[in-house]
Amino acid sequence: MRKQINGLATLVESGMDARPFSGDLFLFCGRGMTMLKALYWDRNGFCLLEI
Q: For residue 5, what is the enclosing H or E element?
């Protein structure tokens, strides 16, 4: 879970063939499934939540 906003947005584009600027919510979990990151585009920029 070392990737930040730019790396996760790149994963969305290349790995998921989706548009990170669409306003959809993208969820990423760590290998141990103990950490969760949520990435979404707000009108002013990206929002990254770490849970």
A: helix 5-15
In which domain, by residue range, is 11 found?
Answer: 5-50
**In angstroms, what CA-CA distances link 28 with 2, 5, 8, 22, 42?**
11, 12, 8, 17, 18
The tally of domains found in the chain comes to 1
- CB count within 10 Å of CB 39 equals 22
pLDDT (mean) for 8-30: 95
Q: What percent of the chain has pLDDT over 90?
A: 90
Please report the pLDDT score of residue 1 as a whole number. Answer: 79
Euclidean distance between CA atoms 30 and 45, whole angstroms: 24
Rounded to whole angstroms, the Cα distance separating 45 from 31 reads: 27
